Structure formats: C-alpha cells, structure tokens
Amino acid sequence: MNLQKVKEYIQTKYTLASLNSTVVDVQEQDGEIRVLISDSSESSCWHSLSGEEIYDIQKELRKEQPLYLIDLDGIVANSTARFERATNAAGINWRIAFDPELIALDTVIDGAMDTLERLAQRGTIVYISSRPESLHNATMKWMKKNGVPIHWIALRPQFAKTLEWKEKEASEQVAQIQPARVIFIDDEMKNCEAVAAALPEVVCYASLAECLAGECNV
Question: Is pTM, for the whole model, over 0.85?
Fold first, then answer.
C-alpha cells in the first residue's frame, strides 16, 4: 500500500469531517499500519488501522488509480519449456501442459518484473489467465517464488470458454473497483478485441513492453 496516499486520504477525510486533526506520519510494520495523529492541543498519538479501515481505504484509493488487467502466459511467464514437454506429434497434451508440478518450468519474461513493480506502485494489478483454476496454488507459489507483485489473480473456471470468460471477468473487475483508467494486456488479439467491445474505455496492449511505450509509460 502506498503510505503517502494513505496519509493524504486520511487527512482529507478528517478535513471533510471538520476534525481539527493532522496526520503527521504513517508507518507500516509487521503487517500493521499505524497513523500518528496530532490534534489542536498539539498532543500526538498513534492509531493502528483495523482490517476494516484498511479495506475501506484500499477500496477508495483504487478508484483514483489505473486498473491493470494482465494475462500471465506470454506476458509475465515464459511457458515455452512447459508446453514443449506437453507437445508431441499429435499436438498438445493439455493434462501435461496444465500439470501443477510443471509450472516450475516457467520463467519470468525479461523486463517483466521491473514493469510490474512500477505498475503495482501506480495502481491495481489483476491477473486474468486462461490457466485452469486447478493451477491456482501452483501459480501462486511460482509468483511468490519469483517475486511477482500480486494484488489479485483470476484463473479460468472448469469448462469456461476463454474468450467469454475473460470478457466477463474483466467487466466484473471494472464494476467492482471502479478505477480511473482500465488497461488490458494480453498477447491474444481476440481477447483484447472481446474486452474492448465490452468495455469501450479500456486501452489494450499485446505486451508489457508495448504498454510501456504507451499509456502505461512509467
């Protein structure tokens, strides 16, 4: 969480509520966010934000920030080795391609980490991947191991068709978060076109590098 944004938000809230208090400092330690508040008598005290307060602040701040809807395979993860293992003369064996044990073969695409870290500081990242939900734990483990910033991840439900599901998931995320801007990054043009048709305000890119050269320029 951007502590400077938290400080600004709480101060604005106090001002609108006509409370004669000033937010002096905001600190995060061991998963706890503490706010140093000074009142008109110039006395100060620390206040630890509750889980509900943190949730409410995050919800409001996200409305002021861009929302990045990002695919995993081909955008963040290089899954070439995994799919080579799953491919034979007959084509792709999807049971092998989506074997949780083989997710460890994936590598982070060059330059992806730097871009994702910057985007995570600016807004909310939601990964929307056509990987089946059965790969959730393996995917989370891989992301944490590689230091990939995680705000939220959505994987395709069983039997759902990728195109329709990505369009629906993107629309639901936008409706829930109500962000200032929406940026969709996916290496499949048909997915970009489907999401753009459902969300006219969305800006689509085929890679993180392309995004950097456009409105994602950070």
Answer: no
- Residue 99 placed within a domain: no
The secondary structure of 69-121, three-state, reads EECCECCCEECHHHHHHHEECCEECHHHHCCHHHHHHCEECCCHHHHHHHHHH
Looking at the structure, do residues 114 and 190 belong to the same domain, yes or no?
yes
Domain residues for the domain of 31 are 3-61
Domain CATH code at residue 140: 3.40.50.1000
pLDDT, one tens digit per residue, over 108-155 is 999 999 999 999 988 999 999 999 999 999 999 999 999 999 889 999
